[in-house]
């Protein structure tokens, strides 16, 4: 093999030197060969990454030859790159610089440490030398950033890093100052960020000049949005250079003052003057000088700046950048505690949000329509930024936001009433989510009504006639949703399509359709509300919300799950939006089903059905979530109270597990702990620790012990003897088990399958028993048994029928499932009694039917709501249709 | 490191501290005569305890200890003696209950007394935060248990409108409430209260009703919840820890009474405090005999015993100790020395600040954020390269043009050189030929004429 230079497979180390040599030979330009296709470089870089060609990490270092050959290959590679970097042909030089940057990151630490300083010299030459092509310069800056990033990971060479990066700062500040190109600025900003992160002490004494350079760059108004974001990020991490409290607070105050003074210009004549001064007073302690404005190095040239920059108003995009910077400062970690000027920030936010572009009567003569128009066009941007700042503040303050929570809630609610732009509503919902999550149950009570009112406005249009909504707002009437008749049966998808169709008769009204993004945000807010405070004072509003959620969820999936299939002509964004909407609807539905604490969720059957169907959409987010939802709901259906005992390993092997448990019981019999396991089913290896199981066992005695509604947690019979009775007669045991399975099939037809699986897991010996297959076959061979089994299911499925009547599409399936489940339930049970023949099964079946009826007429059932979902109480399902 | 901390009403014993894993005793903090339920860890960063004072004293006192020093570091003196003390899990608020029934709420980083309200008719005996830190549950000597929403407490407008501040007021106990715990589950949580009337009561937070009343053979001083809320443990005056059913089944013929399904670890004297270790599944109890016992609730056996003092223990807690609490990782060396000694926050203030104009200059917040480093270092150069490649392929941007121009310039230069060379060569050749011809002509004119 080795003789021909072949190698084992694609993981073989000996491949790597060869591959690297080939790359170098065929794809990397050299002196003689011209460099034609730049895209070749990308593929070279990809190959390097995929095969880790530069890593030189050999697991088995005994093979000296291999190590040597790889080292040689990388040596050749680096030599070539250095040659290219010094080439005077710009494109070759550029290629060399780019690949050197990648090499800096990917080569072995040993090689990096040995040669970083020479590489630095080479790259540095391109940054400062005059006459270098801009293209090469940008690439050199990027490669240098990577070099510093790598260097920052070796603490022992920190000194070199500091001295190298220290040399670069002044050139970079000049670079930001001078008129260059966007790409250069971008590279310079990334470089500054890298140095701030890894070598803060190098830049420490330049703090002020860096701050003013970045700030004036943001204010220059010549940058793209993307660059502005980068600059804002860079400014926000700047205080970490010094890492003390004053630096952070000072920068924060400077930013707020700058924004405030800009608002003075923008909102001229639209608000009272006092608001601005109030904010300034909050930011500047009385008797102290205000800090130098951002973008000025010291107070002496403040006046000059004032003179030159005053007339030019800041661009809105610059203000956004400063607000973004403030947000990042609030949400990024900082080494010491800081002083956040909460009140000033809140006052600033309120100042922005209260301006809606209307002009008060007294000021009307001073404002021209053009002025008003230009402001109104920018206002949504301002509002959006202010809301962002509020989100940032809430995140940063965490629990310490509590003293201001009431103020925020009031502000938000006032704003919500008039806010009708989709983007802003989405943000408002997101603020509500943050508030609810950070302040928990305590705030939920006070937000509930407002959230629900707004959610209904955004989600209701198609269902106005179904439910009586608790809307008291006048806005509900103002916003008339178009095409109501037409879209009565339309799904969210359709409404999306409607939105896209323009130019038709009803087009002018179409902007009033609630966009999917707002619906998603509303659903998410509702989900959080239900999660946090779903059980609080819930009687008044839960029913409507639950009904709304089930119908929204059903509607969102109405057009079929498989969006891709039946919407080939839809654009991609629309599809992902629909998926998000489905997901949001299903998530909210799950929260509504789970958060209900005192009564059985009315929509549980339909919810289960939706999740079950959703789970089949393999490979989608929806399917994943549906699987999760089914798992969560399973606990709702089979509530379990888990005692503190070790039992997990026992599930795997039937006999070992059994004996171990047996021994444990014996051992602890003298201890008080026996109290925990008084119903020791020593003779029942298949029922250890399973609360559910024992509950069902005890269930048949339940009617004897009337239950107290309030102490529902102790709803199980107290006679420990009854379990032993259950044990003594094997038949009775089966009988109860059987009953339990039928119970399940009644309450939740689709869920039974998993239950049976669970039971089989618990009874490993049964599963392994050859009789299992036998009895299954028997049942299949005797289809005449089915009529015997029917009664117990038929009574049960009465309630399901109501459901199915209204939902004809699934009626057949449900019915069919019911029967099958019933059958299966019996099959699982039969092996338990050993040699049971089909005859006994028939008897069990009949017994069962009687029992089933008895349960249904049993008035005591109402009190056992929690034991297993009530069967009679299914009305809500039917009357909502 | 998970540690048990215990304090007693006797001053010289201090606060004992033991590693729960190894049983090794840690540093003992000095001079602490705590009130019952008056010991708490603030955000796991440091310890705070309200102190028993002689009855004549009019003001209360609350002390702070940092983990690594034995002596009291910060002393505060609230207006009245504080009995129970509790902090939220983040360690940003401390609440204390006064002997007059007032509840005080301080902000830890600044020490500001943010709110103070009259909560009970008689002294507050126990205070706990709910699992999401948005509610406070308080118990009192008058037998009432009340639930407070912090949001409501801070909302001045709603306070004025509302008839009462509390969310729920449970008035089932006939005598002093000795302990209160609140379980998991947000709005669906349960509250369990113990009282000197020999009962424990289970309340529903969402409905605000009594779920279960359990009568014990003796007074219950302390309760602890099983994390699965299957049972709860009740430490009683007769030295037993009773196990009472929540979700667990119980039978009517239990030895001790309805819902009481067993008892654990007999102490010789009354059990005064309980704590449950979630990570090790151990129950820690403090007793009037000065011992801390750690028992395994599964078997009921005592696993460890710690001797704390001769006097009665009245607080045990399990704390996940944050060693080296020093968030001041100051980057530059200048600031570090100055910052070092102020590791603990300032003392708690006596009075609320009526004019809150200046309050904005004292909102101290620790910014947490996502503090993990990047999983992968950013690949700036390859990103830049890809962008540039794209530009080159578009061939529209000025850079690309510039780059091409540069390339062409070089080509041009090279071509010029080439031309020069060719020219030179041509010249040379020409010269050569001319010279040759002339030479030949001179040398062999006949031959030249022949060719």
Automatic annotation (TrEMBL), chain A:
Biased composition (Basic and acidic residues): 701-722, 730-746, 771-784
Main localization of the protein described in the UniProt heading: nucleus
InterPro entries listed in its UniProt record: ARM-type_fold (IPR016024), RIX1_N (IPR012583)
Domain Pre-rRNA-processing protein RIX1 N-terminal: start-end pairs: 23-224
Region annotated Disordered, chain positions: 482-503, 698-784, 800-827
Subcellular location as annotated: Nucleus
A Gene Ontology term for the protein's cellular component: nucleus
Domain of life: Eukaryota
GO biological process: rRNA processing
Keywords noted in UniProt: Nucleus
Pfam families: RIX1 (PF08167)
Family under the similarity heading: Belongs to the RIX1/PELP1 family.
Protein name: Proline-, glutamic acid- and leucine-rich protein 1
Organism: Rhodamnia argentea
Taxonomic path: Eukaryota, Viridiplantae, Streptophyta, Embryophyta, Tracheophyta
From TrEMBL, chain B:
InterPro entries: WD40/YVTN_repeat-like_dom_sf, WD40_PAC1, WD40_repeat_dom_sf, WD40_rpt, WDR18/Ipi3/RID3
Annotated stretches, region: Disordered: 331-357
Keyword Lipoprotein annotated: no
Annotated GO CC locations: nuclear pre-replicative complex; rixosome complex
Keywords tagged on the record: Repeat, WD repeat
Superkingdom of origin organism: Eukaryota
SMART domains for this protein: WD40
GO BP terms in the entry: DNA-templated DNA replication; rRNA processing
Xref: PROSITE patterns: WD_REPEATS_2, WD_REPEATS_REGION
Pfam family, one: WD40
WD repeat start-end pairs: 117-150, 170-213, 264-305
Gene3D superfamilies referenced in this protein's UniProt entry, alphabetically: YVTN repeat-like/Quinoprotein amine dehydrogenase (2.130.10.10)
PANTHER family with a match to the protein in the record: WD REPEAT-CONTAINING PROTEIN 18 (PTHR18763:SF0), WD-REPEAT PROTEIN 18 (PTHR18763)
Record-given protein name: Protein ROOT INITIATION DEFECTIVE 3
Source organism of the structure: Rhodamnia argentea
């Amino acid at each position: 093999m080795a003789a021909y230079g072949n190698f084992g497979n694609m993981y073989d180390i000996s491949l790597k030197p060869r591959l690297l040599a080939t790359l170098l030979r065929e794809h990397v330009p050299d002196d003689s060969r011209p460099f034609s296709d730049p895209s070749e470089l990308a593929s070279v870089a990809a190959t390097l990454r995929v095969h880790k060609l530069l890593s030189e990490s050999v697991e088995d270092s005994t093979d000296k030859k291999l190590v040597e050959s790889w080292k040689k290959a990388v040596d050749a590679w680096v030599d070539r790159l250095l040659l290219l970097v010094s080439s005077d042909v710009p494109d070759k030089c550029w290629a060399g610089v780019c690949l050197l940057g990648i090499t800096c990151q990917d080569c072995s630490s040993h090689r990096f440490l040995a040669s970083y300083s020479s590489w630095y010299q080479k790259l540095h030459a391109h940054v400062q030398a005059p006459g270098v092509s801009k293209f090469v310069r940008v690439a050199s800056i990027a490669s240098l950033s990577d070099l510093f990033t790598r260097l920052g990971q070796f603490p022992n060479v920190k000194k070199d890093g500091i001295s190298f990066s220290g040399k670069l700062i002044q050139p970079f500040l000049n670079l930001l100052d001078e008129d260059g190109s966007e790409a250069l600025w971008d590279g310079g900003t990334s470089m500054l960020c890298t140095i701030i992160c890894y070598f803060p002490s190098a830049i420490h004494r330049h703090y002020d000049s860096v701050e003013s350079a970045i700030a004036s760059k943001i204010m220059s108004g010549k940058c793209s949005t993307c660059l502005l974001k980068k600059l804002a990020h860079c400014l926000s991490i700047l205080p970490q250079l010094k890492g003390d409290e004053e630096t952070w607070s000072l920068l924060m105050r400077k930013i707020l003052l700058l924004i405030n003074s800009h608002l003075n210009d923008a909102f001229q004549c639209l608000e009272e003057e006092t608001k601005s001064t109030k904010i300034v007073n909050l930011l500047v302690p009385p008797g102290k000088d205000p800090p130098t404005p951002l973008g000025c190095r010291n107070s002496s040239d403040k006046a000059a700046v004032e003179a030159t920059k005053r007339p030019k108003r800041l661009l809105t995009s610059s203000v956004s950048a400063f607000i973004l910077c403030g947000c990042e400062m609030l949400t990024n970690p900082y080494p010491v505690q800081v002083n956040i000027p909460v009140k000033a920030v809140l006052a600033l936010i309120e100042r922005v949000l209260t301006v809606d572009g209307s002009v008060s009567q007294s000021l009307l003569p001073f404002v021209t329509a053009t002025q008003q128009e230009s402001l109104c066009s920018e206002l949504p941007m301002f509002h959006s930024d202010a809301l962002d700042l509020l989100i940032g503040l809430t995140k940063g303050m965490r629990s310490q936001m509590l003293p201001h929570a009431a103020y925020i809630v009031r502000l938000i609610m006032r704003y919500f009433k008039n806010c009708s732009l989709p983007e802003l509503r989405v943000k408002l919902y997101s603020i509500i989510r943050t508030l609810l999550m950070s302040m928990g149950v305590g705030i939920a009570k006070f937000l509930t009504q407002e959230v629900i009112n707004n959610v209904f406005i955004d989600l209701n249009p198609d269902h106005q006639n179904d439910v009586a909504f608790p809307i008291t707002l006048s806005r509900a009437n103002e916003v008339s949703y178009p095409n109501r008749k037409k879209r009565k049966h339309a799904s969210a998808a359709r409404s999306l399509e409607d939105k896209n169709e323009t130019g038709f008769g009803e087009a002018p009204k179409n902007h009033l359709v609630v966009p999917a993004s707002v619906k998603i945000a509303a659903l998410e807010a509702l989900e959080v509300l239900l999660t946090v405070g779903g059980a609080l004072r819930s009687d008044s509003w839960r029913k409507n919300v639950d009904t709304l959620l089930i119908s929204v969820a059903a509607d969102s999936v109405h057009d079929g799950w498989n969006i891709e299939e039946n919407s080939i002509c839809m654009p991609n964004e629309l599809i992902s939006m629909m998926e998000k909407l489905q997901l949001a609807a299903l998530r909210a539905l799950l929260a509504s089903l789970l958060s209900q604490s005192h009564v059985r969720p009315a929509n549980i059957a339909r919810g289960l059905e939706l999740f079950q169907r959703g789970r089949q959409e393999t490979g989608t987010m929806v399917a994943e979530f549906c699987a999760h939802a089914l798992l969560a709901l399973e606990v709702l259906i089979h509530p379990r109270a888990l005692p503190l005992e070790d039992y997990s390993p026992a599930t795997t092997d039937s006999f070992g597990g059994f004996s171990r448990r047996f021994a444990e019981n014996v051992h602890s019999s003298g201890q008080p702990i026996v109290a925990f396991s008084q119903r020791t089913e020593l003779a029942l290896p298949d029922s250890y620790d399973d609360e559910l199981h024992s509950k069902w066992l005890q269930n048949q005695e339940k009617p004897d012990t009337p239950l107290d509604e309030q102490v529902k947690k102790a709803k199980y019979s107290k006679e420990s003897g009854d379990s032993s009775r259950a044990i003594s007669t094997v038949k009775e045991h089966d009988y109860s088990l059987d009953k339990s399975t039928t119970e399940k099939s009644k309450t939740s037809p689709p869920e039974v399958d998993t239950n049976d699986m669970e039971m089989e897991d618990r009874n490993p010996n049964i599963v392994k028993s050859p009789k299992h297959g036998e009895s299954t076959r028997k049942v299949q061979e005797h289809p005449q048994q089915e009529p015997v089994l029917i009664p117990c299911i038929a009574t049960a499925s009465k309630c399901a029928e109501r459901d199915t009547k209204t939902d004809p599409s699934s009626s057949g399936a449900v019915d069919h499932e019911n029967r099958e489940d019933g059958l299966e339930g019996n099959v699982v049970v039969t092996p338990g009694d050993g040699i049971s023949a089909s005859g006994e099964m028939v008897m069990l079946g009949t017994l069962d039917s009687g029992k089933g009826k008895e349960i249904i007429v049993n008035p005591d059932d109402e009190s056992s709501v929690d034991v297993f979902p009530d069967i009679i109480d299914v009305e809500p399902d039917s009357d909502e249709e | 490191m998970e540690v048990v901390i215990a304090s007693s009403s006797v001053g010289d014993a201090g606060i004992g501290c033991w590693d729960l894993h190894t049983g090794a005793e840690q540093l003992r903090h000095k001079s602490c005569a705590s009130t019952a339920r008056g010991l708490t860890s603030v955000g796991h960063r440091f310890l705070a305890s309200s102190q028993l004072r002689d009855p004549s004293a009019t003001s209360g006192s609350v002390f702070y200890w940092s983990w690594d020093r034995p002596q009291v570091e910060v002393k505060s003196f609230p207006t009245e003696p504080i009995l129970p003390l509790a902090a939220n899990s983040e360690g940003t608020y401390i609440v204390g209950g006064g002997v007059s029934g007032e509840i005080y709420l301080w902000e830890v980083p600044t020490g500001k007394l943010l709110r103070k309200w009259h909560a009970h008719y008689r002294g507050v005996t126990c205070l706990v935060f709910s699992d999401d830190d948005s509610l406070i549950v308080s118990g009192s000597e008058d037998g009432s248990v009340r639930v407070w929403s912090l949001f409501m407490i801070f909302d001045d407008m709603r306070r004025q409108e509302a008839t009462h501040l509390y969310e729920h007021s449970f008035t089932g106990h006939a005598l002093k409430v000795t302990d209160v715990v609140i379980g998991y589950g947000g709005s669906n949580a349960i509250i369990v209260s113990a009282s000197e009337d020999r009962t424990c009561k289970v309340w529903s937070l969402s409905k605000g009703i009594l779920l279960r009343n359990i009568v014990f053979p003796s007074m219950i001083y302390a309760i602890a919840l099983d994390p699965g809320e299957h049972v709860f443990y009740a430490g009683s005056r007769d030295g037993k820890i009773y196990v009472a059913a929540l979700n667990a089944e119980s039978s009517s013929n239990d030895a001790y009474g309805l819902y009481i399904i067993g008892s654990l670890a007999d102490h010789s004297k009354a059990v005064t405090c309980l704590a449950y270790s979630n990570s090790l599944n151990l129950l820690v109890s403090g007793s009037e005999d000065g011992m801390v016992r750690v028992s395994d609730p599964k078997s009921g056996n005592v696993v460890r015993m710690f001797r704390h003092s001769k006097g009665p223990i009245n607080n045990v807690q399990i704390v996940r100790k944050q060693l080296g609490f020093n968030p001041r990782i100051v980057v530059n060396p200048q600031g570090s020395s100055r910052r070092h000694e102020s590791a603990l926050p300032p003392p708690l203030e006596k009075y609320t600040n009526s004019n809150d104009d200046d309050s904005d200059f004292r909102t101290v917040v620790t910014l947490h954020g996502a503090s993990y480093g990047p999983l992968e270092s950013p690949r700036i150069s390859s990103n830049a390269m890809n962008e540039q490649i794209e530009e080159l392929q578009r061939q529209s941007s000025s850079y690309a043009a510039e780059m091409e121009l540069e390339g062409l310039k070089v080509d041009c230069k090279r071509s010029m050189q080439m031309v020069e060379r060719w020219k030179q060569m041509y010249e040379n050749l020409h010269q050569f030929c001319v010279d040759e011809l002339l030479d030949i002509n001179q040398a062999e004119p006949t031959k030249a004429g022949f060719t």
